[in-house]
């Protein structure tokens, strides 16, 4: 039997003002898988991600991360296992230097100062921003901020990386460098995004969400070839899979 | 209007750039600089309200710091000027309230009010100058950490740290809001009406609350338990002790003895 590292079972959630957000979501993600969560704005992607690290608790249903069922008692362990990269790096980088920010997680987890330093250096080196260690985060470019935000999670050595729109706001070069970086990680990856071309590059499996439910779950290429499904979920084919504007005009 | 805000925004950042300098003064342990600044401010404000002459030697300290720290004098003076309206408003009525003549310079009679006003301005320049110099040589984050190492409650230092971190985001957000407003308000000079201003303020508050929630979320997902831990090696060596003890002794000496008068006597004695 394979090891189910993330399992969501019949998850239902509505916000305190009764705005429904998730109505019965179930899936299993295995160790080492790279999964995209796509869907229109307001389909429930972000809400789903917030359940994966226990920030929101399900109204009904279960979330299981590794060996732990997500409960108030296990939330600390779950948060160590799940590294969450937020959409706006300014929300994530709240300390006054890059070093302090990347050290924040490991320090809270109780590592010794030498251990913390080693982890920080390694995380910064992995994402290629060691030279920024003493800079204040608000002075960095968006691309650099994103890398530091990823380092701030890597320093806790999580098993699972959860990312909300990692490629948003990046210039084309920074975007493709980020994709290369993410591709080099061995972690289980769960990526919520609108950047379907990135999904083609990074994720072998795609979960499509629509109105708080999963409307499809399968191999990425299969899903992106299904035009009726994409249209029903307010999505379009990745640009790369659409006809080339130059050639098709000549056609 | 928005140009001014933009300018102020970059200026705050500039203090931080100055703090990243690498001079012997910058390398001193922040605690030494913080404590020296506190002693300086306390001695300066402890003088009587008509004191002028004995305050003047205290300008030695900012002068030495600017020299040692290779800081731009005009930039710092501009910052002091920026805050000066507050003090001028506090002291401007002194000359009217206190008309008793205290000093007769030939035909010119100077009232106690004018003297206390000038004394107030001097003290303001010295204390604000010292605080700015502390930030420009140490950096805000290091000051917060020094405060904590010196035993300030963590609730307080964490608030300061986060306040300083997010003031840039907050100002950035306000600037964008003002810009959006001025682009679509065709009234004279883009002036904001009271009603619109209230709405913008409310909007800013709501956005801030939302952001605070997201930041808290980010902290929680990195195992935050309510205590902010920072690794920072501080070394309070003999340089720090010299700096702190030397300057503090000088300030107390200047406070307790009238060095200007002594010097004056000395000069008179010699010339006689």
SSE arrangement:
The complex is a heterodimer of chains A (251) and B (272).
Chain A: E1 4-14, E2 20-30, E3 34-39, H1 45-52, E4 60-65, E5 68-69, H2 75-81, E6 82-85, H3 89-92, H4 98-108, H5 113-127, H6 142-154, E7 160-164, H7 172-183, E8 188-192, H8 196-202, E9 205-210, E10 213-219, H9 220-225, H10 227-232, H11 245-250
Chain B: H1 2-19, H2 24-27, H3 30-45, H4 60-69, H5 73-91, H6 94-97, E1 101-105, E2 108-111, H7 112-138, H8 140-149, H9 154-184, H10 194-220, H11 238-256, H12 259-271
Antiparallel strand pairs in B: 1-2
Helix pairs in contact in B: 1-7, 1-9, 3-7, 3-11, 4-7, 5-7, 7-8, 8-9
Main attributes?
heterodimer; A: 251 residues; alpha/beta; Rossmann fold; six-stranded mixed sheet; four-stranded antiparallel sheet; 11 helices; 10 strands; globular; B: 272 residues; mainly alpha; 2 domains; two-stranded antiparallel ribbon; 3% strand
Task: Please describe what this structure looks like.
- The complex is a heterodimer of chains A (251) and B (272).
- In chain A, the strands form 2 sheets. Chain A has a 6-stranded mixed beta sheet, with helices on both faces. A 4-stranded antiparallel beta sheet of chain A has the order 2-1-4-5, covered by helices on one side.
- Chain A contains 11 helices and 10 strands.
- Chain A has a domain at 1-66 and 161-169 and 184-251: P-loop containing nucleotide triphosphate hydrolases (Rossmann fold).
- In chain A, helix 4 (98-108) runs parallel beside helix 6 and helix 5 packs across helix 6.
- With 251 residues, chain A is α/β, with parallel strands linked by helices.
- Helix content of chain A is 38%, strand content 25%.
- Chain A starts with a strand and ends with a helix.
- Helices cover 73% and strands 3% of the residues of chain B.
- In chain B, helix 3 packs antiparallel against helix 7.
- Chain B is mainly α and 272 residues long.
- Chain B is globular.
- A two-stranded antiparallel sheet of chain B has the order 1-2.
- The termini of chain B are far apart.
- Chain B folds into 2 domains: 1-139 and 233-263, no CATH class; 153-232, no CATH class.
